[in-house]
């Protein structure tokens, strides 16, 4: 019998590999669910942040409106000031209360509500004070009416009072006329070496100040020394030396002076000051003095 041999494949034998495992369905579902949760949380955070910004803006708007109303009420208290000292103290206390409230940093809903509650109380207080002040005004009107009636009944006494007032006014006028000399029509003219007007500080040779001493029937006549003070833009007094005169109990320097004969009528005169290089561009002020009083002033400007 022929040997029957098994047909065996020639060459190396290749074993079939194990099939790859697929991820479990549950894991995939968990990953998808986790992604959804993360997306939801991100969306929710975005909305909450946006809502927070909206609420913050609204709080700022409410705070601004409340502060504006408080400031308006504060100003209304100013207009309510009266001759009644007690009422004025109450008004001042309410203004101080408003000032303290305005310093509060109302940055949340609770403080805003507190703000609104305080504002409501302040409104009520304001209404109460307006009513009280109106009552006081009505009472003052009644008192004035009563005073008018009393004045009518005491007409003779009022006439005598008016006569005394007239006499007092006449005496006051006499005192005012007797108080000081007065200068009018003050004209200041910077002059160059040809005695022509020139406003250039570098070309001025002299400054001429002309004016009129007013008529005054009360002041005793006689020689009067008139003093002139010219102040530079930097307030330095132009002077040719240490020349002093008394003013309000002090010795002060002057620029130039002149003695005049005063006979209780208008006296026209001019006082000159020679430039010694002290002039600078700018605005100057001129004051005129007599008998310890400032009797007139004016200004001029140099280029």
Can you describe this structure?
The chain has helices spanning 25-79, 85-102, 109-153, 155-179, and strands at residues 183-191, 206-213, 222-231, 244-247, 250-253, 256-262, 267-274, 282-290, 293-302. The protein has 303 residues and is of the alpha+beta class. The protein has two domains: 27-125; 181-302, Immunoglobulin-like (Sandwich). The strands form three sheets. The chain has a four-stranded antiparallel beta sheet with strand order 6-3-8-9, with no helix packed on it. A hairpin with a 2-residue loop joins β4 and β5 (250-253). The longest helix has 55 residues, at 25-79.
Distance linking N and C termini: 149 Å
What is the CATH superfamily label of the largest domain? Answer: Immunoglobulins
Number of helices: 4
Helix and strand content put the structural class at: alpha+beta
CATH architecture of the largest domain: Sandwich
Q: In percent terms, what proportion of residues is strand?
A: 15-25%
The overall number of domains is 2
Order of helices and strands: HHHHEEEEEEEEE
How are the strands ordered across the major sheet?
6-3-8-9
What's the total count of β strands? 9
How is the main sheet built? 4 strands, antiparallel
CATH topology assignment of the largest domain: Immunoglobulin-like
What would you call the shape? flat
What is the CATH C level class of the largest domain, in words? Mainly Beta
Which blocks of ≥5 consecutive residues have pLDDT under 50? 1-8
Bin the helical content: 40-55%
Radius of gyration from the alpha-carbon trace, in angstroms: 48 Å
């Amino acid at each position: 019998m022929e040997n029957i041999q098994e047909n065996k494949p020639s060459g190396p034998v290749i074993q079939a590999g194990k099939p790859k495992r697929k991820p479990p369905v549950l894991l995939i579902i968990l990953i998808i669910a986790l992604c959804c949760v993360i997306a939801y949380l991100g969306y929710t955070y975005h909305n909450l942040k946006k809502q927070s910004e909206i609420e913050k803006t609204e709080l700022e708007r409410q705070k601004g409106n409340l502060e504006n109303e408080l400031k308006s009420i504060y100003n209304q208290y100013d207009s309510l000031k009266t001759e009644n000292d007690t009422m004025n103290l109450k008004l001042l206390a309410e203004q101080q209360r408003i000032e303290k409230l305005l310093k509060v940093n109302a940055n949340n809903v609770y403080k805003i509500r507190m703000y609104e509650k305080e504002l409501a109380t302040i409104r009520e207080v304001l209404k109460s004070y307006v009513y009280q002040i109106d009552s006081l005004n009505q009472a003052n009107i009644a008192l004035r009416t009563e005073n008018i009636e009393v004045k009518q009944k005491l007409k003779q006494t009022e006439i005598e009072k008016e006569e005394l007032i007239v006499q007092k006014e006449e005496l006051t006028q006499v005192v005012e006329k007797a108080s000081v000399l007065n200068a009018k029509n003050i004209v200041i003219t910077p002059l160059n070496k040809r005695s022509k007007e020139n406003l250039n500080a570098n070309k001025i040779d002299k400054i001429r100040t002309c004016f009129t001493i007013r008529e005054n029937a009360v002041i005793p006549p006689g020689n009067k020394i008139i003093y002139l003070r010219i102040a530079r833009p930097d307030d330095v007094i132009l002077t040719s030396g240490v020349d002093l005169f008394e003013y309000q109990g002090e010795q002060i320097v002057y620029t130039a002076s002149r003695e005049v004969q005063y006979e209780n009528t208008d006296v026209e005169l001019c006082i000159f000051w020679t430039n010694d290089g002290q002039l600078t561009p700018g605005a100057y002020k001129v004051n005129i003095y007599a008998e310890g009083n400032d009797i007139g002033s004016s200004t001029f400007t140099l280029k």
